[in-house]
Amino acid sequence: MKACTTMVMATCLLCSGVSPAEVIETYSFDGGFGMHRIVHEINTAIFVGDQWGDNPISPPILDITVGIQDVGKTFIANRDNDPNFAAFVAFATDGIDDSMIMPILFTSDDPSKWDIWMSICDGNGHDLQGYRIDSISATVEYLTIDIPGENGQHDGIWTDFYLTVDYRIEGVAIPEPATIVLLGLGTITLVRRQRQYKQ
Question: What predicted TM-score, i.e. pTM, was given to this entire model?
Fold first, then answer.
């Protein structure tokens, strides 16, 4: 009876799509630059990009501005708090091995901005088709902002920065219809045998 009950519960969970989320993929950015600007904060986000990591094709998620005070913090995007989440996930699970792109937009004393686009995952088989994506998080592991840094222009208007961000994608594998059918048939068989045994 216990085995039968367990199987029925497992089948119901699979059919209803209710399963505990697990870590599906992880990505990291780890790098630094120097620039002829005075920079105090860094704005970043992630996009699904084309297969070559050159152009964004999805809306951004995890659009955050971070400073030294944010080291150790984790930022989370999901369907409830990010209006772009569903569109981002649609591109990330479309069966095409696209890239993940992280832009860096510097918040500086200069009204002009300087953008850097970094590919954190190129198009090498990391499409997430077959998964239900529940959340994507970014943890700021390390950040230094050094003014005037190495002062490459020798005028005091210079900033060196180094940033490490870890990304985690959490969700569950979506069982194929054939798997659900087999589990359902197995459950029915167990229930019938249990009834026959009682009779």
Answer: 0.74
In this structure, are residues 46 and 61 in contact, taking their beta carbons and an 8 Å threshold? yes
Structural element, H or E, at residue 109: none
Beta-sheet strands, E only, within the chain:
22-35, 39-49, 61-66, 74-78, 99-108, 115-121, 131-146, 159-173
- pLDDT, one tens digit for every residue, the chain (199 residues): 444 444 444 444 444 455 677 988 888 889 888 888 888 888 888 888 876 666 788 889 999 999 999 999 999 999 999 999 999 999 888 888 888 888 887 776 655 555 677 777 655 556 788 899 999 999 999 999 998 888 777 888 888 989 999 999 999 988 755 444 445 555 555 555 565 555 5
CA separation for the pair 98, 121 (Å, rounded): 8
Beta bridge partners of 118: 102
DSSP track, 149-174: TT-TTSSS--EEEEEEEEEEEEEEEP
Instruction: Identify any residues that bridge with 28 across adjacent strands, giving them in sequence order.
Output: 166
